[in-house]
Design a protein that fits this description.
binds pyridoxal-5'-phosphate, 417 residues, three-stranded antiparallel β-sheet, seven-stranded mixed β-sheet, 14 strands, Aspartate Aminotransferase, domain 2, single chain, 2 domains
């Protein structure tokens, strides 16, 4: 079996997905070669069940949780939907006054969209918590909301780390404030796990989302960690698997590979994070030298690891995010791609039309500047050559993208530079 590799060229989009590790791929193939439904009572079924339960123990140990707190899902989006909808319905069942859902303005759409769906279909009121210029949630706004409406709040959801600008959130402070009002906290830790220390029990959160394909595991598998006393309603109904809150035949091969990749990523994290931070620092310095107009978005990278023991850095070690005034993010992305460098604008298209990122807008970045966004994210396979290739291509790419922006008038309109 060959060792999995990043796509050819300089792959700087590990936050979108990162290659499977060799150990995870081997675990996947070994398990996929066996038949057996983990719900069946015969020996093949019991073997599949054993693989799932061993993986559950491993996932729990990697993340500071109990095995009974692990609910396997088909990835981060499903875990986020289960958290937002399931906790909302669970809390309303016991107390119908609890209709308010507090989410930070910079959440991934996998959190924002189910929250707004609840507003449109289930009588929820959504409160978007503002963030500062670095994308960090405003704790004073959270406190004020809880003081004014604590009895009506169903849940708070604040991500551990932002997927666009890499900002780490003050999750423990969020938990402290919310718990003073008896409000449970969910955190989307999809981007954080494997990059910074994530401990479910120590963090105090009530529910946490993790996914396999951002840390060396397969696509389409992840988990929601949820405390046993957290009221949570099923979103998928059927065979009653996973405490009755997530029906569906368990994907034993994917679950086993996910557990293997997670254990590896957590064990490798201290060393890998330091390596990524050093590469990221070289990338940031190089981009600034190549284009003095480029603006780093999100917190300024601090020396890694920051401060004393237990202190966390302000930004993910593998993330660098810039806006390039006068250039369209999409033009930059395609021009870089043709130079063999793969990056991301960090935000979604709607019907093929690039949208300025809701994260940057929430941080107060003007819309025209937000259009010139480019995210570079590093992972286990990243090398100095990847960064060198980006820096060699960048000056010409930015120049051409700016020229295209001038021609279309798309990004310099209104005099913004
Ligand atoms: C912060 C965050 N949450 C959720 C998701 C969705 O996870 P998945 O791709 O496993 O559905 C992503 C993926 O981009 C993400 O970055």
């Amino acid at each position: 079996m060959t060792t999995p590799e990043a796509p050819a060229g300089a792959y700087l989009d590990h936050a979108a997905t990162t290659p499977m590790s060799r150990a995870a791929l081997e675990a996947y193939v070994a398990e996929a070669g066996r038949a057996g439904n983990a719900s069946s009572l015969h020996s093949a079924g019991r073997a599949a069940r054993r693989a799932v339960e061993e993986s559950r123990e491993s996932v729990a140990a990697s993340l500071g949780a109990r095995p009974s707190e692990v609910i396997f899902t088909a990835g981060g989006t499903e875990a986020d939907n289960l958290a937002i909808k399931g906790i909302f319905w669970g809390r309303r069942r016991t107390d119908p006054r609890r209709t308010r859902v507090l989410v930070s303005a910079v959440e991934h759409h996998a959190v924002l969209d189910p929250a707004f769906w609840l507003a449109g279909h289930a009588g929820a009121e959504i409160v978007l918590l503002p963030v500062d210029g670095d994308g960090r949630v405003d704790l004073a706004a959270l406190r004020a909301e809880l003081v004014a409406h604590g009895d009506e709040v169903a849940l708070v959801s604040v991500m551990w780390a932002n997927n666009e600008v890499g900002t780490l959130q003050p999750v423990r402070d969020v938990v402290r404030l919310a718990h003073q009002h008896g409000v449970p906290v969910h955190t989307d830790a999809v981007q954080a796990v494997g990059q910074v220390e994530v401990d479910f029990a120590a963090s105090g959160v009530d529910a946490l989302t993790v996914t396999g394909h951002k840390l060396g595991g397969p696509l389409g598998v992840g988990a929601l960690l949820a405390r046993r006393d957290l009221p949570i309603e099923a979103v998928l109904h059927g065979g009653g698997q996973e405490r009755g809150v997530r029906s569906g035949t368990l994907d034993a091969p994917a679950i086993r590979a996910f557990a293997v990749a997670l254990a590896e990523a957590v064990a490798a994290r201290p060393e890998r994070a330091a390596t990524l931070a050093a590469l990221r620092d070289a990338l940031v310095a190089g981009v600034r030298a190549a284009d003095p107009e480029a603006v780093l978005r999100g917190p300024e990278p601090a020396p890694f690891p920051a401060g004393g023991p237990g202190e966390v850095p302000a930004r993910l070690p593998g993330n660098a995010h810039f806006t390039f005034p006068g250039a369209e993010g999409d033009s930059l992305l395609y021009l870089l791609d043709s130079a063999g460098v793969q990056a991301s604008t960090g935000s979604a298209c709607q019907a093929g039309v690039p949208q300025p990122s809701h994260v940057l807008l929430a941080m107060g970045v003007p819309e025209l500047d937000a259009r010139g966004a480019l995210r570079f994210t590093l992972g286990a396979t990243s090398t100095r050559d990847d960064v060198a290739r980006l820096l060699a291509a960048l000056p010409q790419v930015v120049e051409r993208a700016r020229a295209a922006g001038l021609v279309t008038g798309a990004v310099r309109a209104g005099g913004a530079a």
